[in-house]
Structure formats: structure tokens, C-alpha cells
Automatic annotation (TrEMBL):
Claim: Protease is one of the keywords in the record: no
Taxonomy of the source species: Archaea, Methanobacteriati, Methanobacteriota, Stenosarchaea group, Halobacteria
Database matches in PROSITE patterns: MR_MLE_2
Short name of one Pfam family: MR_MLE_N
Protein name per Swiss-Prot or TrEMBL: L-alanine-DL-glutamate epimerase
Entry superkingdom: Archaea
PANTHER family, per database record: O-SUCCINYLBENZOATE SYNTHASE, O-SUCCINYLBENZOATE SYNTHASE-RELATED
GO MF assignments: metal ion binding; racemase and epimerase activity, acting on amino acids and derivatives
Keyword Metal-binding: yes
SMART domains listed in its UniProt record: MR_MLE (SM00922)
Keywords, alphabetical: Isomerase, Magnesium, Metal-binding
Family statement drawn from the similarity comment of this UniProt entry: Belongs to the mandelate racemase/muconate lactonizing enzyme family.
Required cofactor names: Mg(2+)
Amino acid sequence: MSLETGFERVSMPLEAPFTIARGTQTEAENVVVRVADDAGTTGVGGAAPSAHYGETAATVEAVLPALLDAVERVGDPHALHAIEAELRAVVNGNPAARAAVSIAVHDLAAKRLGVPLYRLWGLDPSDAPMTSFTIGLDETERVREKAADAVAAGYSVLKVKLGTDRDRELIDAVRDAAPDARLRVDANEAWTPKEAVEKSAWLAGRDVEFVEQPVPAENPEGLRYVYERSALPIAADESCVTAADVPAIADRCDIANLKLMKTGGLLEARRVIAAARAHGLAVMCGCMIESNASIAAAAQLAPLLDYADLDGSLLLAEDPYEGVDLADGEIRLADRDRAGTGARPASE
């Protein structure tokens, strides 16, 4: 069997500027990978690089030729473990680039078998949790409007970005606009340990479910301090990159948050889930601002999760790919019953 590979960069404007504690984003630059067999069946995957992890669209494009050469050398899209071992041997870093290739190869393998990826893994689509919808940082009244709009659109689980001197005001505005919504908050490493403990107390009074990454990943003892004193469960995001990080966070958080763009591939994502379960942690899968070329693949993991934060494509003004139906926040894996990850060009 021979495989043909290729990739292209796609720039996608956001529906509205998206701000977190580290900065503001107005467009998403993804790189879409394609891997086709000699019968013309094509697998699609997407890279959504993050400068926080040392990647840009340019670095993804720079390493993809070597990664795709490795896929062509293996030559069998079903040899998933061999392919991912080759990818890591070629490029040990650059997880978003490796993730795009991993997704494309998984998509192709499942398409060749004529089954959705979740079915290839033996998962029950009815076990998928709801995905949250993220409310980025903004002026207080704008945050209130965003929350009201999200609820009106049917999203009942909201994740609120914090990390400002107006955090209490922002949460009050969201809770006022969405009194019945399930709320989660994400500080993106912006708080000190003592600040995080203090804020957890009044966040608990506003019926928030949990706090994501309250302190910098570079401060593991600070994370432990918060975990031992927090009024709310703690989720580790930036502190949990690959399965090797799980033992170190197991006594510092309640929830391990994985992202395909951190793990470098779907096999490693499943290893993170297994490691987290072995250490008694709950599991969430998050995302960057991504096209459905990669979000659809992350959604296939949903039956293995306790929490999902897979709204990356929902924040785009227009996505060149469609994927799993996420209307109202429900991850409807079985509705379209497509082989592979479910990602398809929107033009089809």
C-alpha cells in the first residue's frame, strides 16, 4: 500500500475577539493535514498550535514534511502505534504538528473500516458528557451579554475565563445572566496560591463546579497548596501535558485536563485518560480554538470523559470543516454516523 500526504494552512477569523489572562486572539491559524490511500480514501487532521507550548503555524509547517515522510515510510494507516512511534522519533516536540498527523491517520484507518472512530474504540456514544461553552474576558457588560447569548443559544454549561482584578464582578454578571447554568472557571495560571484559595471560597458561593489551572504550571507546590485548601475541585491543564505528568499532579488536583494539541496524538491522549483513571482523577478534554478538522477527533474521546470543553470550532466565524454535531452543547456522536472522526469539508 502507498500513502499520499499533504497539508495546507487555514486562517479563520473568530466570531468575536477572544481574550484570556495571557492575551487576545482575533483569528485562528490552523494547519490541515491529509493522508490518502491508493484507493483515494482520505483522512483529515488539524493542528492548532499554541505559542504557549512553543508552536506556531510556521513551526508546524516546518516539521510536517518530515512527519509525513515518516507516515509514508510506514505505509499502513492501521499501524497506528508504529506511526506514532515514528513521529516521535522524527520530532520529539511540536505536539500540535504530531497531533494533526495522528488525527489524519486515525481518520483514514476508521474510514477504511467503514466505522466511526468511537466505534473502533468500542465506546458508547450515549456516555458523552455535555461540552461547555467558553465566555472570554471582556468588559463586564459584554461578558453579561455573552453569557445571556450562550444560554439563549442552548448552552447550559459555561466556562468563564478569569484572571483580572474584576473576577468577582465578572462571575456575578455571568450568574445574573445565566442563573441556571452550570459554571466552571479557568484562570489560565493567573492567580497566586493564596489568591486562588480566597477566590475559591466566593466562587463556591456562586455555585461554580470547579476551578481550572489557578496557578502557574511552574509552581507545582503552589498547586498543591490550592488543592489542599480550595473550597472547589481543581482541574490541571497547563500542569498536565502528557501521561508522564499525571503521577506528579495526582496529589495536586481532582481533574486532569488533556488536549490533543498538548498530547501530540490520539494514542497519547488515551494514555493520559488511562493514567488519570489509575490515579483516581476525573478527566476532562479541552481544546484550543480549532477547526472541526481536529475538534471532531477530540469529540470521539467523549465517552471516556467526565467533562468536555470542546467548543473551539464554535468560536469561529466560519469553519472550512464540519464535524460532530455540538448544538446546544450535546456531543451527538451517533447522529451523523460518519466513518472516521466525522470531519468533512463544509463545501461537501
